[in-house]
Amino acid sequence: MDSKDLQEDFSNWQRLAPEMAEAPPQPGVYVIRKAGGMPFGRLSGQSDILYIGKSKNLNKRIKNYLSPGRRKTAARVKQMSEKIDMEVAWYLDDSPSHRELLLLRQYWKDHDELPPLNHSRPWKVLVKVQNGITSTDSVNVTKSPISADQ
């Protein structure tokens, strides 16, 4: 899975920078990729996708990446943006949690791992992706869902 696979819904890629056009203040899913769609190696295959996320207010969340506060993911994205150029696109969706989970599942299926910046709560996301848990299900994970013999 890479950004070309998402072109139907995510087609308006913009450089993740202070001068970018504002995202709408509505719920939706957003994807951050390497600028220009340049692929990089994954455990299986290649992708240009760095992060898949959701928000109740896309404008507020995406602006958060430009001047990160306490959010760990925002700090990771900001740190990475100092090394490589990134682009962002979004899709308006009244059920962003469900859409995000579908995208993460597809990414996992294609690459045997999550996008590199989707690791603030990796075990919680991983359990949902691997076990088919819906976004409304409660997940309480205290240790890695991957055992040593897997």
Tags for this model:
single chain; 150 residues; alpha+beta; GIY-YIG endonuclease; 4-stranded antiparallel β-sheet; two-stranded antiparallel ribbon; 4 helices; globular; disordered C terminus
Q: Summarize the amount of helix as a percent range.
A: 25-40%
Look at the helices and sheets and give the structural class: alpha+beta
| CATH superfamily placement | GIY-YIG endonuclease
Class, according to the CATH hierarchy?
Alpha Beta
How many strands, what sense, and barrel or not for the largest sheet? 4 strands, antiparallel
The CATH topology: GIY-YIG endonuclease
Topology, element by element:
Layout: E1 14-15, E2 28-34, E3 40-41, E4 46-47, E5 49-55, H1 58-66, H2 72-81, E6 86-92, H3 96-111, H4 122-131
Antiparallel strand pairs: 1-6, 2-5, 2-6, 3-4
Helix pairs in contact: 3-4
Description:
It is a single chain. By secondary structure, the protein is α+β, with helices and mostly antiparallel strands. It contains four helices and six strands. The protein has helices at residues 58-66, 72-81, 96-111, 122-131, and strands at 14-15, 28-34, 40-41, 46-47, 49-55, 86-92. Strands 1-6-2-5 form a four-stranded antiparallel beta sheet. The chain has a two-stranded antiparallel ribbon with strand order 3-4. β3 and β4 (46-47) form a beta hairpin. α3 crosses α4 (122-131).
